[in-house]
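Suppose you are handed only these lines of text.
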Amino acid sequence: MAKYICTVCGYEYDKKFGDPDNGIEEGTSFEEIPEDWVCPTCGVGKEDFEEDFYGDDEEDE
Ligand SMILES: [Zn+2]
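From them, the structure of the protein bound to zinc ion can be written out as follows.
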């Protein structure tokens, strides 16, 4: 559950990096992101993101 993909534009949210430009610190899991966060590229909400199972390295913290 390390990465989530925007289904609209393909932006990839990676917990390792967070989204510091929008106040999301690195290490923040997708579930912990505030509900009002939007895709930094296209502006859709979290509901339009899908978990990226491909490449999941079983990281479980
Ligand atoms: Zn997007």
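What can we learn from it? The CA atoms of residues 18 and 25 lie 5 Å apart. The chain has a mean pLDDT of 90.
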